[in-house]
Amino acid sequence: MNHDESRSLYDRALSVLAGGVNSSVRATQPYPFFVERGDGAHVIDADGNRYIDYVMGYGPLLYGHDAPDPVQSAVQKHAAAGPMYGAPTEIEVEHAEFVARHVPSVEMLRFVNSGTEATVSAVRLARGVTDRDKIVVMQGGYHGAQESTLVEGGPGGAKPSTPGIPSSFADHTIPVPFNDEETVREVFEEHGEDIAAVLTEPILANTGIVQPVDGYLEALRDVTEAHGALLIFDEVITGFRVGGLQCAQGKFGVTPDLTTFGKIIGGGFPVGAVGGKAELVEQFTPAGDVFQSGTFSGHPVTMAAGHEYLKYAAENDVYEHVDRLGEKLRAGITDILEEQAPEYTVVGTDSMFKTVFTRHGVAERADACADGCSQVESCPNYDACPKTGADVSKAETDRWERVFWQEMKDRGVFLTANQFESQFVSYAHTDEDIEETLEAYKAAL
Ligand SMILES: Cc1ncc(COP(=O)(O)O)c(C=O)c1O
Ligand SMILES: N[C@H](C=O)CCC(=O)O
């Protein structure tokens, strides 16, 4: 493959964009390919190379790069008619009504512009309504580029995971291991009166993919309720990706107090949202006292795209298609790994998948998972599944990024360069794409 044009664009980018990119995960080594356009399940780079795309914008693109006609018409109509006003529009109401009809925890919403803004706003709301400062988060969980959750450490003490955040912020954050009910109960015994909320992805999708063991989300529901704290599910990735229109909370049957959304809910445009019980969400200004505001929030083009996206999914076989192909891919990779790399693990569910490069031996991992993973039926390797962020962090990140990712890219398959990010199947992917991907896996491994 020739990459001259991408290389020259990257050289230019390095002079005017920090690290040559606008989001860190895009800076692949030795240089990223620059995308010229998308085509269904594929992207075409500036040198004309074509790749089957499983990055899918890091999750938003449920339909791949060709949105269905109603989405495209709605986007064009709203872009031509405005595109925005600083005044409310009907499409915001319609989109909110649709989401509230389908997602169990949602009665009312506030739309914002990114997943980060959604989690920032949800944490502020939880602190505002409970009049408490501390939040519990999961080690290995990700909630965007926000001060309260960019922490490392354990329940005994957290510190910021990046320069630029005062350590006093981390004093209010308690990271606990995912899937560890005992630790979270101990934390509540010790700090229960100061904890505003537990904030967790229902599936660790940025460090994983790690699924909740049987009863874990229920335990979080139970312990938060018992201590007057809120349970917040961050469904920025899982929302409208896992569990169809009911999201992961519908699939697992656990209803949080607040849910944060992003990605798919905006139909491929910048978006975020906080949803939940009306009595909570109404505490945002102007109805309540917890300040929240945004010039672009509820942007008509985004609302129209998101609304048509979800309506189309409600009326067509979208989730059947993406989940079937997700399963086919996971099963196919599992077979290949059995032959060629039995120490690696396939993880995922619905239309999400990942191969985790752990070399700790199935027996060891099976021991570690013996009491937990048996409920994850959709995972073909459930007895070897990682259970915590720490399990996943043992993976061979360097081998993934420097060898496997490059080999797949050279074979025309675009995966996330970061070992820990999920990959996504879209409605535009076909059985032929999956078969081609499996052939590439065989050769690359
Ligand atoms: C679970 C989760 N929460 C929050 C975010 C932040 O969203 P955004 O990048 O739109 O700010 C992301 C991903 O970026 C995410 O995966
Ligand atoms: N981990 C992020 C979201 O899923 C990756 C997207 C980004 O931050 O650019």
Automatic annotation (TrEMBL):
Keywords: Cytoplasm, Isomerase, Porphyrin biosynthesis, Pyridoxal phosphate. CDD domains: OAT_like. One of its GO terms (biological process) is protoporphyrinogen IX biosynthetic process. Its main location: cytoplasm. Belongs to the class-III pyridoxal-phosphate-dependent aminotransferase family. HemL subfamily. HAMAP family: HemL_aminotrans_3. This is Glutamate-1-semialdehyde 2,1-aminomutase. It comes from Haloferax chudinovii.
